[in-house]
Amino acid sequence: MKTKLAALLAGALFGLGLAISQMINPEKVIAFLDVTGNWDPSLALVLAAAVIVSFIGFRLAKIRVSPLLAPVFRAPTRTDLDRRLLSGAAIFGMGWGLAGYCPGPAIAALAIGSWEPVVFLLAMTAGSLVMSRIDSRNT
């Protein structure tokens, strides 16, 4: 129960942060990504804050024996860059630049009640299902 409550609180805090920082506003995100046009650098502060919080979190994790709400830490073990990772990152970046949404902010933007994040999430889900089907055929 504690784990689910912590996840709910962390998700609510994350969504609130996305809303306050305007990461749920696709026009703001696209303006941040448009470095050769009418660039809006204000989201760089959001990026800097995320890096600082992550840095502190990873440092704290290194000095703890175990996490607060799990028996062990589960960190990624792969460090290689392969074609799937690079192509997925490129597709993600293109989608983010074109739509102005990525998954977290799109889910948080559902609270606004507009139709754009719904369309984005449906398209993202469809793309994930297609890729899952392609992956299952290749293995």
Please supply descriptive tags for the structure shown above.
mainly alpha, DUF6691, transmembrane helix, transmembrane, membrane, 139 residues, single chain, 6 helices
Question: Summarize this, please?
Answer:
The chain has 139 residues and is an all-alpha fold.
Question: What's the SSE blueprint?
Answer:
Blueprint: H1 2-20, H2 26-33, H3 43-63, H4 83-99, H5 103-109, H6 116-138
Keywords: Membrane, Transmembrane, Transmembrane helix
InterPro entries: DUF6691 (IPR046513)
Transmembrane segments: 43-61, 81-101, 107-131
Shape: globular
Radius of gyration (CA) equals 18 Å
The low-pLDDT segments are none
Look at the helices and sheets and give the structural class. Answer: mainly alpha
Oligomer: single chain
Mean model confidence by pLDDT: 90
**Can you give the helix content as a percent range?**
55-70%
Give me the number of helical elements.
6
Number of strands: 0
Strand content: under 5%
Largest sheet: none
Number of domains: 1
Distance between termini? Answer: 37 Å
Pfam families: DUF6691
Keywords: Membrane, Transmembrane, Transmembrane helix
